Amino acid sequence: MRIEPFVLERWMTKYETKVKYDIAESGILPMTTNGLLALVSEEERHATQERLLNLPLGYSEACGTLELRQALADTYEGCSPDNILVTTGAIEANFLLFNVLLQAGDHVIAAYPAYQQLYSVPRAIGCDVSLWNVGSDTGFRYDLDELEKLITPKTRMIVVNTPHNPTGAMLSQEELRRVYELAESNGAMVVCDEAYRWLTIPGGAPLASPIFNMGTSGISVGTVSKPFGLPGLRIGWIATTKEIVSQCWGMRDYVSLSPGKLNDALALLALKHRDKIIERNNGIIVANLGSMQVWAARHSDIISWQAPRAGLLSLLRYNLDIPSVDLSNKLAEEYSVMLAPGSAFGYENHLRLGIGQDPAVFATGLDQAGVCFGELQRTVGKSLVRGS
Predict the structure, then answer these.
(1) CATH number, domain 7-26+276-379, options 1.10.290.10, 3.90.550.10, 3.90.1150.10, 3.30.70.890
(2) Is 85 helix (H, G, I), strand (E, B) or coil?
(3) What are the DSSP calls for 180-237, one per residue?
(4) What is the torsional sign of CA 176, 177, 178, 181?
(5) Which of 359, 373, 371, 315 is nearest to 340 (CA)?
(6) If you write DSSP's letter for every residue of 242-304 in order, what string do you get?
């Protein structure tokens, strides 16, 4: 299987460990191990720390420990540990599902723009992929009538991501139910990448329930990376039927074999204390939304922006006459600011913004980006495509 280059990941790798102000990051501010331990009551903290420090670093249970799978199952309805497969991040979960459930010639519908894996892997398998537009011409919203037009008798899978990367769009409970019913009535599955589960905007609309809860045609993919600020643990999971779990488990024997044992234990710790993590997240999101709204108003002659309905991401449109990858490179190399190029998502004249960063870093990064935009406005002028 030959897969096209992963444009976003290649670009991110070039700068993400080098810049001072990463305001393109797709997850919430990463936690430390000390930060996780601080969530535990003082009475239990020492014992928890000793248990982690004395954990033998051998192979873990290949499908994830029973304790972690039970804790994950408890976040769904009618779910048992046998319905859960712990994976190396959500990216492995999606890869396994596509390779187990799809074959060349199948028709797949995938939201677009999107994290490139969600349509590139099905294409590499040989599927006929239709892109369901969630871009600026839909107001960064899912158009369910358009989805219905895309479905054919050969549709095998619908791939959605809600809350959505990179636009911040969101499917409501009723909308997600309609997606599920459209798929089920056509004999298709819905793979729902729920990487931003638990990341609501304080005071905003509630998230839809996981698609696993709707029936056996719905497959939920989750991760501790985005909502818990733990991307370094590389822990994700699949919630689906026991049969599909078994098939995916069989394939992952050839890929990563098993999750890291310490990673599994730390993910379980985070899951047990997710209410405290969500409270932490809310403070970060509120602070950064406030900074962004002030900054966007100050630079409204250059940029336009729509706050995410949920999750952490949105696309920032600019009207400077410079390609997005060139602008992103300039920001990173000359201003130490990371804003991902919209071209990596097929959206030129846009940059991807993430609101999960440390608020002080986020505010300074915006200020530096503003300096860059101002200098470019004076030197290269505004784009001819303004307002398009």
Answers:
(1) 3.90.1150.10
(2) strand
(3) HHHHHHTT-EEEEE-TTTT-PPTTSPPPPPPGGGG-TTEEEEEESHHHHT-GGG--EE
(4) positive
(5) 315
(6) HHHHHHHHHHHTTTT-S--HHHHHHHHHHHHTHHHHHHHHHHHHHHHHHHHHHHHHHTTTTEE
Determine the 3-state secondary structure of 306 from DSSP: coil
Amino acid at 126: G
Radius of gyration of the chain (CA): 21
**Backbone φ/ψ region at 382: left (φ over 0), alpha (ψ -120 to 50), beta:** beta
Q: Is 82 exposed, middle or buried (0-12, 13-18, 19+ CB in 10 A)?
A: middle
What are the residue boundaries of the structural domains of the chain, listed by start?
7-26+276-379, 56-272
Architecture of domain 56-272: 3-Layer(aba) Sandwich (3.40)
Structure-block tokens of residue 171: 């499917």
Q: Which among 148, 147, 97 has a CA at the least distance from the CA of 127?
A: 97
Which tokens hold the place of 207?
A: 């998230």
CB 345 within 8 A of CB 113: yes
Are 99 and 251 a contacting pair, CB within 8 Å? yes
What is the DSSP annotation of 94-154? HHHHHHHH--TT-EEEEEES--THHHHHHHHHT-EEEEEE-SGGGTS---HHHHHHH--TT
Residue 218, amino acid: G
pLDDT tens for 91-149 read 999 999 999 999 999 999 999 999 999 999 999 999 999 999 998 888 889 999 999 99
Tokens 């959500």 correspond to 90
- Rounded Cα gap, residues 239 and 254, in angstroms: 20
Backbone angles phi, psi at 210, to 5 degrees: -55, 145
Span 63-107, pLDDT tens digits: 999 999 999 999 999 999 999 999 999 999 999 999 999 999 999
In one-letter notation, the amino acid at residue 69 is R
Model pTM score: 0.94
Separation CA 269–CA 267 (nearest Å): 5
- β-pair partners for 237: 86, 222
